[in-house]
Amino acid sequence: MEKIWVYFKGAKMKKITVSLLCLSSFLLATDYDPVRGEMLSLSCASCHGTDGKSNTTIPYIAGVSKASMHQTLLDFKSGKRVGTMMQKHVKGFTDEELEQVSYYFSKVKR
Predict the structure, then answer these.
(1) At residue 71, what are phi and psi to the nearest 5 degrees?
(2) Which fold has domain 32-107?
């Protein structure tokens, strides 16, 4: 048993730990459900336009990267970022639902 512990000590243990952390991040990723994403995105249409293609001063969100949009929505939800309606609006969604919305809009062509 002592030989095994010595083998895994130091740099090898760090590599194993980093590898396991990287692999575990895949378990936390949400599977994209296009129907659910589209359904959840309907609440955005009144301000951001159909499919996120706003023709007013409200930001155009069609084609925005999933990671960027998801982080922005989480920032609104946590209060890190302020906006007129967004802070109130995103609080009605779970983080997973915000990720689904982000997936949906990232797939919409600009």
Answers:
(1) -65, -40
(2) Cytochrome Bc1 Complex; Chain D, domain 2 (1.10.760)
